[in-house]
Amino acid sequence: MDALLKVDRCTIRFGGLTAVSNFDMSIGNRELVGLIGPNGAGKTTVFNMITGVYQPTEGQIFLSGDRLNGLKPFNITAKGIARTFQNIRLFASLTVFDNVRAAFNLHLKHGPLHALTRGPKFKREEADIGAQAMDLLKIFNLDRFRDVMCKNLPYGDQRRLEIVRALATKPRMLLLDEPAAGMNPTEKGALMTLIEFIQEKFDISVLLVEHDMRVVMGICKRIYVLDYGITIAEGPPDEIRRNPKVIQAYLGE
Amino acid sequence: MSRARTILGIFLLFLFLFALTGERPFASHLAYYYDILINIGINVILAVSLNLVNGYTGQFSLGHAGFMAVGAYAAGSWSEHLSPGLVNFLAGSNGVLTFVLQPFPFLQPFAFPTAVADNLALIVATMFGGLLAALAGLAVGIPSLRLRGDYLAIVTLGFGEIIRTLILNIDFLGAARGMSVTGRYTNMFWTFGFAAVAIYVVLGLVNSTYGRGFLTVRDDEVAAEAMGINTTKYKVIAFVVGAFFAGTAGSLFAHYAGFLTPEGFNFFKSVDVVVMVILGGMGSTTGVILAAALLTILPEVLRALAHTDFVPAAQKAIEGVIPIHLPPLQGLLENRLILYSLLLIIMMLTRPQGLFGDLAGSRKRVTSSASK
Fold first, then answer.
1. Terminal CA-to-CA distance of chain A, rounded, Å?
2. pLDDT tens profile B67-123
3. Predicted ipTM of the assembly
4. Which residues pair with A233 in a beta bridge?
5. Class for domain B13-20+32-370, per CATH?
6. What residues does each domain of chain A span?
């Protein structure tokens, strides 16, 4: 399989603590993969490692063959990996519309001087960005909140806006960090449909970190299980469900 | 259509400012008011440019007076030492321009009349001051902008003090004796012209997809990075642009006051500007302009008030009712620092968002008109 994202035996240590050890992962094009594990297993650390917030102590990460080690987070986003956050991190003082438009910054062809002269090139690009942002908002049914300050949105909509904002960077791969956290069962059901829809509509790979078994088992084609920084299982949901190591990690002996 | 109207508006504004220009009233009763207006213009430049750093980008800088000092002394020495020779070389009686224009007698009147030369000298000096200040901004910004919050504030504060101490020890710049700038070219037109440019640049930057980067840095650096925004680059740009305009304000001040001392650019000058930004509301250009004007006029009004008969009479009346000795009210009114602190406390308690309040309000209007 030709991997889009390849994590090659990555280890990350904070002082004496090994948060993740010898982590291998390979995600193909248009794959929907889950990453689960008990609290403190190192899921978010893996996320932060892939997105450049932390650098792996050992090992390498590739995105379609490009090495990502040593790159800053914004470089990695430019290469095509977008993410959301476990605790919502929207730009609180911006409107919904501006939050999405801010994410287009990355692909901007004009610079500060164009912004000052306001020439035709600038106007065309701004109009284009505005239209694209509106299209995205419409897909997710958030266009009616266009001029609302994002901090005033309902919680579920904030979560979806974060996903919209991540998609605005035009990623090849989307990393979702516990998108179902704090949602009720109905919202979780809607979220599952949404994630599958995003994967198909935008034709991207999705890596999902999640606590909620129902969500992960329901939509992921393949699942990695972490415990104490070590991969204890990998496979399709049915296998994972029956894996004794996984049951032990979650339920104890 | 709207573009044509904008151009017409700018044109009319400039016409109005030209009307204001005239001769600088050196020794008339108008001189005092002229002085206040010029100071308002200079403070608007300072406050609006600091607002890009402290307000829109969320990096707390306490070194604006340092950048202003760099601009003032650079522009001052340019006018004192470098420019006269250059002007003479270009426009003197044996200068290049005279030589070039010699075969065309009808062009002779254009051979740099004094008024043109003065204005030109001011622009060149101001650009020079601004550029040197921007360089200083770059030099300070690149190493220190990985710091956040309080730490950045301390570093910029240190920078301001270093600049002041350096000037104090450089004999070429007059050290503690101060430096006189003979060419007092600054007039209303250029002061408000540069203020308009500063406002335009800050608003133009912020109201664009490019400039939304500044706001995302302020709101959440981690999320901004994750959205592909190079936060360090944005911080440095904000710092450099802010420093540039602080430098131009310094130059305008130098060519207005005609005399510079290192003490004029101490920590309290930085605090003055920070107070304007906070009072106006971080990230609200309209509010900051208003605050800059208000805080320039306020000490003058209070001073005038302190010297009326009313104040000592009021003090006597109060002390007659309650048997305690109040601190002299006159001195209180004359000391703007006490009032600034009071004003800030009251503002923070009642309107923490600043005079004009709501961050988005002032911005959204501009954004929607720009996207039409």
1. 36
2. 999 999 999 999 988 877 777 777 666 777 777 777 777 766 666 666 667 778 888
3. 0.89
4. A225
5. mainly alpha
6. 1-80+171-253, 93-168
